[in-house]
Amino acid sequence: MPVSAPDSLPSPRGAHLEMVGAVLAGDGLERVAEIAASHTGAPVVVIVPRLAAPVEAWAPYERYVAKRLAGGKPDRPLQVCAEVPIVSGGQELGAVLMLASGGLDAGEYLHVAAVAALTEVAVAEARDETEQSLRGSFLEELLTRDDLDGTDILRRAARLGCELSHGAVGLCADPGERAPGRVLAAISSECPGALAQTVGGRVYALLPGTVDEARQVADRVGGQALVGLSSHYRDPADIRRGLEEAELVLGVTAAGGGPPGDEVGGGTYRLLFRVLASHPEEVKSFYEDTIAPLVRYDDQYSTDLVGTLASYLGQDCNMNATAQAIHAHRHTVSYRLERVKELSGLDPFTSEDRERLSLGLKAYRIIEPRLPR
Q1: DSSP 42
Q2: Using an 8 Å Cβ cutoff, are 226 and 254 in contact?
C-alpha cells in the first residue's frame, strides 16, 4: 500500500539532516528508508549489499541489487517504480528503491536517501576498521606475550565475536604477493566466528571448533595462500601455542622438502609440533642427539646419509628396496648405514634405535627451516 504523503513536507535538506541524525543515532538504513517513505508518499528500501539487509522483507531486493552490482542483468522486481544508485568515488555500492508511485518530488528524496546511506557505509567501515585494529592488537599480544591469563583471553576474544570457551585451532597463512584481504575474507566466509588478522605480512587466525572444521577453512584458504594449521588447544591459556604451532607447520610447508601434507597434519609430527611450540629446546636437543651428526657430515662431505636412512626406514628396512629407491648398490646402502651407526651411536639395524632415528628424522624435518645456513 502506498504511504500517503503529508500535506506539508520539509525541504530535502531538512530530510537529509533527519536521515543523517538517524544514522548517527544507530537506527541504520531501515530508519533512512522510513524517513524517505514519509516524504515520497511510497514505500522505500535502501540496499547496500555489503552491509546486509536490515529487514528480512528486503531480501529479494538485496539479491536483485547484488546481482546487478556483480555485473549481472537481473529482472527488476515488479514493485520497483524508481531506482537511485548509491555511489561513492565512482563505485556503485547499492541502490534506493521506491516500491510504488510517489509524489512529484519523490526523486529528490530518493537522492537524499542515497547520500544519507553513504553516511551509514562510512560509520560501518569505521566500526570495522576499529574492530580490525582491536583484533590485530589482540593477536599480536597473543603472539608476543606468554603472561596473558586464560580468563582474560576468553573475555577479550568474546568481545571481538570469537567464542573460545571450547578451545580453538590456530591458523597461519602466507599470501605471498597476493592481498591478505582475500585470505581474511575466505576465513570469515567459512568460519564467521573466527578471529583473524594480518600480523607482519602473514594472516593469523583462531578457529573455534574441531580440527576437521579447521581443515575445511584451510582448504578454502589454500587457493589464496600457503597455510599451516595447529592441533586443537582446549585451554584458552594455551591458545598462543596454537598460533605458534600453525606458524611452525607453515614454515615446514613453505620450506619444501618436508614430509607430505597429510603427515604434517597428524600422528608423531603433530605431537612434535606441539612440543616444539611449548618446549623448543626439547625437540632441538633430541635432534642433536640423533640426526644432527649425520646432517653435519652430509654438509661437510656432500654425502647422503640422511637421505639413505630416510629411504631405508621408508622401505620397511629392506636393503634391496632401499638400494633400488636411491639408485645405489646394496653394499653402498650397507656402508652408509654403518656410518649412521658410527656417527649417531644408534644402530639402524635394531628396532629400538630405529625408533629413535625415525623420530629424529621427523624432528629434523620440522626444525630444518630454522637451522642456520
Answers
A1: S
A2: yes
* Cell numbers at 193, concatenated: 566466528
Rounded CA separation 24/31 (Å): 11
> How many residues does the structure list for the chain?
373
pLDDT along the chain (373 residues), means of 10: 46 87 86 93 91 83 91 91 90 92 90 90 68 65 80 85 89 86 85 86 90 89 85 85 82 58 49 59 78 91 91 89 90 92 91 83 72 51
What DSSP string runs through 64-83?
A: HHHHHHTT--PPPPTT--EE
Q: Which residues contact 265 (CB under 8 A, 6 or more apart)?
A: 215, 229, 249
Q: What's the whole-model pTM score?
A: 0.48
Contact yes or no for 323/329 (Cβ under 8 A)? yes
Residue whose C-alpha cell reads 520539509 in the numeric block: 10
256 DSSP 8-state letter: -
The angle subtended at Cα 271 by Cα 266 and Cα 276, nearest 5°, is: 125
Give the whole-angstrom CA distance, residue 252 versus residue 370. 9
- Spatial CA neighbour of 138 closest among 164, 115, 118: 164
Give the ranges where the chain is alpha helix by DSSP (H).
Answer: 12-24, 28-40, 59-69, 106-144, 150-159, 180-190, 211-221, 239-255, 261-264, 267-278, 280-290, 292-301, 305-314, 319-326, 330-344, 351-367
Asked whether the beta carbons of 129 and 48 are under 8 A apart, the reply is no
Distance of CA 336 to the CA centre of its chain: 45
Longest dimension (CA), the chain: 104
Q: Is 89 helix (H, G, I), strand (E, B) or coil?
A: coil
Distance of CA 191 to the CA centre of its chain: 9
| CA distances (Å), origin 72, targets 67, 215, 236 | 5, 33, 46
What is the CA 189 to chain-centroid distance, rounded?
Answer: 9
Crossing angle of helices 28-40/12-24, nearest 10°? 160
- Sorted by where each starts, the structural domains of the chain and their CATH numbers stand as 12-127 (3.30.450.40), 145-275 (3.30.70), 282-370 (1.10.10.2840)
**Beta pairing partners, 372:** none
Contact by Cβ (8 Å): 40, 103: yes
